[in-house]
Amino acid sequence: MSDEYHQLLDAAIQHLEGLKARGVRFVPVQPEHLAALAGAPRPVASRPAMATAVAAAPKPSERAAPAGALFSVPVEPVVVLPALSPEAKAAAFEDLRARAMVCVKCPNLASSRKNVVFGVGSIDAELMFVGEAPGADEDEQGEPFVGKAGQLLTKIIQTMGLQRGQVYIGNILKCRPDTPGESAGNRKPTPAEMQTCIPYLHEQIDLIRPKVLVALGGTAVEGLLGKTVGITKLRGQWQTYRNIPLMPTYHPAYLLRNQALSEKRRVWEDMLSVMEKLNMPISEKQRSFFLRA
Q1: What is the pLDDT of residues 230-265, one digit of tens each?
Q2: 155-187: string of b/e by CB count within 10 Å (b at 16+)?
Q3: How far is CA 170 from CA 115, 118, 152, 203, in A?
Q4: Where in the chain is the domain with CATH 3.40.470.10?
Q5: CA within 13 Å, CB half, 172
Q6: What share of residues in the chain are helix, strand, coil (percent, to 5)?
Q7: Helix ranges, 113-147 (H)
Q8: Dihedral sign computed on CA atoms, order 125, 127, 130, 135
Q9: What is the pTM of this model?
Q10: Residue 76 CA neighbour count, 13 Å, CB half
Q11: Cβ contacts of residue 46 below 8 Å, gap of 6+?
Q12: Measured distance CA(10)–CA(170) in Å, rounded
């Protein structure tokens, strides 16, 4: 069996285990998927067998299968989750936090971090922002987006008419990427680090169930969508992630480096689109921000 098959299998098993930990006991499976899986080649004995299939409703996006494959492989299984009571949701979120706080799946990151930066905000938020990874300030305080870029993000949220506590803010990585031999600076997370850590983000999204996601910067887009075409080409164009509308936009740190009014306006136009998607009221004053007189 191909490495790609095993990666998908492991991801599906991990997702199902996460559902089981949150009290989910039944996963709806479409008949055509069961029929396809019945004729699929079974994994080798050295790999754990998957007892049930992950189905999607609505049907997940699919990509073409390799030559000779019996069925196309879902890129991202989307499971219909049962509604949780507020108490069950809070308990599941705390369980997730507890597991993330002691994670050592990336030994280099676990040994160099000061804090696991789990996320912050309302677990009932309709809007969720996703960045790439904690920086030095975030690692020190254990909270995402608290440095200069985070302060700018807070201003953006407030300009939208919301408070920071009304949204949820997280990252692809829960630990600051280590920088051996360097006392300052940040580095981009590696694909392997993102792949290892993103199941925690998936569980956060599945529990929060936001109506809109915002990906902050190219690395966040790459980690979520696997697209490396560049944030300048993707920003402002609605995407879909885990069956949720996703808006890619520039990272606030970019706006700190580039103070051009035109760049601020581009990000603000993205936020106006987000507000429209959420059916939020938009004043004429808000619509005119960062436009030249």
Answers
A1: 899 999 999 999 999 999 999 999 999 999 999 999
A2: ebbeebebebeebbbbbbbbbbbbeeeeeeebe
A3: 14, 7, 15, 12
A4: 86-287
A5: 26
A6: 45, 10, 45
A7: 136-141
A8: negative
A9: 0.74
A10: 14
A11: none
A12: 24
Q: How many residues does the chain have?
A: 293
List, for residues 6-46, the tens digit of each pLDDT value: 555 655 666 666 656 555 554 555 555 545 555 544 444 33
Q: How confident is the model at residue 182 (pLDDT cuts 50, 70, 90)?
A: confident
DSSP structural state of residue 201: H
**What pLDDT score does 74 carry?**
39
State the distance between the two ends of the chain, measured CA to CA, in whole angstroms.
Answer: 62
Half-sphere exposure of 291 (CA within 13 A, CB side): 8
Q: Give, in order, the Cα–Cα distances in Å from 249 to each of 64, 116, 210, 287.
A: 29, 25, 17, 17
**What is the topology classification, in CATH, of domain 86-287?**
Uracil-DNA Glycosylase, subunit E (3.40.470)
The reply to whether omega before 199 is within 30° of 0 (cis) is no
